[in-house]
Amino acid sequence: MDIKNYKGACSIPQDFDTFWDEKLEFINKVILEYEIEKTEFSNFENVEYYNLYFKSFDGARIYAKYIKPKTSKKCPALFYFHGCPGCNRNWFEKTAYASLGYAVFAMDFRGQGGRSEDIGGVKGTTVAGHVVVGIDDVLDNMIYIKNILDMCLLVRIAKELDDIDEDNISCAGGSQGGGFSVMCAGLNPDIKKCIILYPFLSDMKKVYDLDLDLIAYESIRYYSRWFSATGANDERLFNRLAYFDAKNFAHRIKAKVLFGASNIDMICPIETQFSVYNNMDCEKELILYKKYGHENIPDFNTKTAKFLLED
Questions:
Q1: 227 near 255, Cβ under 8 Å?
Q2: pLDDT for 230-247, tens place per residue?
Q3: What whole-number distance in Å separates Cα of residue 158 and Cα of residue 154?
Q4: Under 8 Å CB-to-CB from 133, ≥6 apart: which residues?
Q5: pLDDT by residue (tens digit) across 268-307?
């Protein structure tokens, strides 16, 4: 395999862009209902901390951390997405971005380890992770479809705030967060900078073919064992997953991209990372970490800070 030209094990669905354009049209019509409350520990001279709750399109209550520099000027915004299956981690981590001048919005994905609600109501299996939750229901009921729509609502809310420079917004994340950074930039063409580290939810058929459908991807293996034991249902399975496969959003990105790839990653295999990068047709930079797996990469943290500070 020529990994530098590899674009994925499955082609993009023919109606992929139409599907998501219609979803964006729908989400842009949702009436925004949100509340922002200052935290009890927000008593510093240079930074402010807020809890942000909003009502999603289906009535679920979604939570995000909101951190901003204390300034009278409008701030650039950074949407930071967390890994699977946790939540947006401590406030201290996000404060690093505020120190660079960014207001940070960090949403908890519904049904994972944070404060956001999953109001449920899907048909079929819900075991062992969210990749297949809703797979046997209508496509709109897949939980990752809902998470993507939550994300798009949060972007709308942030751009409405008086403190935010709506012409200077960026996104970032690693693993699940990396996949959502791809999706965020792909669905929001006004994203200026996009930071991606070893994206999860990418080229999922390849993960399956490599027999690495374990850990974060284990629900694919469970589903295939129970409902496609001989592979007879694989085509339908991966056609459904394709609607939130990060590589399929990559061609829509207009932002400037900083992409970190981990060469010996056994959770998000390197082939799947390249499938995202190679499908991008935008200004982009790839940094390949040859002896890193799915882990913290200090050098990428440094490059992220420099990237965000660039004009």
A1: no
A2: 999 999 999 999 999 999
A3: 6
A4: 111, 122, 125, 126, 142, 143, 144, 219
A5: 999 999 999 999 999 999 999 999 999 999 999 999 999 9
Tell the residue number behind the tokens 């967390």, with chain if given: 82
Residue 164 has pLDDT above 90, yes or no: yes
The encoded tokens of residue 76 equal 């650039």
- pLDDT, mean over the chain: 95
Which two tokens mark 148? 């993507």
- What strands lie across the sheet with 47-55, from one edge to the other? 34-38, 47-55, 61-69, 103-107, 75-81, 164-174, 191-197, 256-262, 284-289
